[in-house]
Design goal:
CATH class of one domain: Mainly Alpha
CATH architecture of one domain: Orthogonal Bundle
Strand content: 5-15%
Largest sheet: 2 strands, antiparallel
Helix content: 55-70%
Number of strands: 2
CATH superfamily of one domain: Winged helix-like DNA-binding domain superfamily/Winged helix DNA-binding domain
Structural class: mainly alpha
Shape: globular
Distance between the termini: 40 Å
Length: 143
């Protein structure tokens, strides 16, 4: 048996994480439609928790590099959900705020967060979900 034939893709963590991500995105579309993406909703939730936060701070909070976050902000602004302005403290920095439409989308999204999590974790018991979240937080260095 070669190393290639012994490799079990469906037991390989990176592959499983990627597939779980795709499945979570598919569930998101089923629940929320296609007007906003899961990343945009995470952006709106972060800005909603800290109105006027810097774009770099929000990027760190939602786990994106600055370039990716900048693209996400631009697309979200184009949908009329977010505004960006120069910081009064540091003109090199941008601050983010929700529009009225953005607040509505964020509020609705956060209200559905429990149902979304339950749909994604539908094959897990409550204890398995708790363990998975604990292990993923540890894997990502959040514990």
């Amino acid at each position: 048996m070669t190393k290639t034939s012994a490799f079990r893709l469906l037991h390989h963590l990176p592959h499983l994480l990627r597939r779980a991500h795709f499945e979570a995105d598919a569930v998101f579309v089923e629940m929320h439609g296609t007007d906003v993406t899961s990343r945009q909703l995470a952006l709106l939730a972060a800005v909603g928790r800290q109105p006027g936060a810097s774009q770099s701070h929000v990027a760190l909070e939602i786990g994106l590099d600055l370039n990716t976050c900048s693209d996400l902000v631009t697309r979200t602004m184009a949908k009329g959900l977010l505004t960006r302005r120069r910081s009064e403290v540091d003109a090199r920095s941008f601050c983010l705020d929700l529009t009225a439409a953005g607040r509505k989308v964020a509020t609705e999204g956060m209200a559905a967060a429990g149902a979304y999590e339950a749909a994604v974790a539908r094959r897990l018991s409550a204890e398995e979900l708790r363990q998975l979240v604990t292990l993923l937080r540890k894997l990502l260095g959040f514990s």
